[in-house]
Amino acid sequence: MGATSEQRLHRADSLFVNASYIDALPLYESLLQRLQSASPAMLLRMAFIEEGAGNYTKALYYLNLYHLQIPNAAVALKMQELAARYNLLGYEFSDLDYFMIWYDRYYLYLAIGILLLNVCIFLIIVLRKERESLCQSVTGVVSSFFCRYAGIAQFQIQCHAGNCSPA
Question: How far apart are CA 162 and CA 133, in angstroms?
Answer without folding.
Answer: 9
